[in-house]
Amino acid sequence: MSKIPPRDGYGKALLKLAETNDKFIVLDGDVAMSTRTCWIRDKYPEKFVDIGISEQDMVGTAAGLALSGMVPFATTYCVFLAGRAWDQIRTAVAYGDANVKLAGAHAGINVGPDGASHQSMEDAALMRVLPNMTVIAPCDAVETEKAILAVADHNGPAFVRFGREAMEVITDEDTPFEIGKARLVRDGEDVAIFANGPMVYEAIKAADELAKEGISALVADVHTIKPLDEEFIIAAAKKTGAVVTAEDHQKIGALGGAVCECLSENCPTPVTRVGMPDTFGESGKMEELMAKYGLDCPAIVKAAKRSISMKK
């Protein structure tokens, strides 16, 4: 199993779009090397604009370009895009249903040593609450590439979050991807684990560990947080009677919140959320931080046993 930074998948998708979509353009917030938009800058300079360290201006410019018929990808670190530019995203993009694509690189605890100021653990919640916004958290570099190509064809605002560091590639070119459709990774009978981003890999490992104890775990890659695949979520909950959500994000407001809202209204089921507790992170190696804050395989195993214990 190879390791590739998800941002490389973003860069590859942009190169494909530059070749096939004459309305495509990239805006970057002075982080082109880090986000891989430099690949467009260097090969297709006419399709690249460096806005500088001015995220609000970048989003406003992207909205104007979209209203003029272009398909702009506004790109910067996730924490700056969802945080600093939220008002512009709300008013200029979501409210007007502008066809802007928001690419949040360096998402989650993945940026490790950069510390709490750069660890974007709240972005999906901020984006999910906005009307008209599609929110996606792909699980690896290959799925990131597919997600970007998909949102380019999707008419309307979309936000895609992806990490910086190399992560295990667990999908391939033949793995299906469709906006709004969860992907069954592994079937199971005793508990359903809904994960996205890097937590899909951790969920697969957790399912292996649970199997050693005779526990059959269903694992699903719920890459699209909004619109949530409610039909799949409800069916898996009915089948297993116990649910775990796992995400590289605050427990509040993103995948865990969306699943709980869905099930509480349609199919009340024991749910245990695995995610960042109600706190900020700190500087450290990614693996150390994932273990400290319960964003790893052992945390998912523990959560699965808890949900199973609450079955009626």
UniProtKB/TrEMBL annotation:
Residues 4-169 form the Transketolase-like pyrimidine-binding domain. It comes from Candidatus Lachnoclostridium stercoravium. PANTHER family: PYRUVATE DEHYDROGENASE E1 COMPONENT, TRANSKETOLASE-LIKE PYRIMIDINE-BINDING DOMAIN-CONTAINING PROTEIN. Its cofactor is thiamine diphosphate. It comes from the Bacteria. InterPro entries: PDH/Transketolase (IPR051157), THDP-binding (IPR029061), Transketo_C/PFOR_II (IPR009014), Transketolase-like_Pyr-bd (IPR005475), Transketolase_C (IPR033248). The keyword Transport does not apply. Keywords: Thiamine pyrophosphate. Pfam families: Transket_pyr, Transketolase_C. This is Transketolase family protein. SMART domains: Transket_pyr. Belongs to the transketolase family.
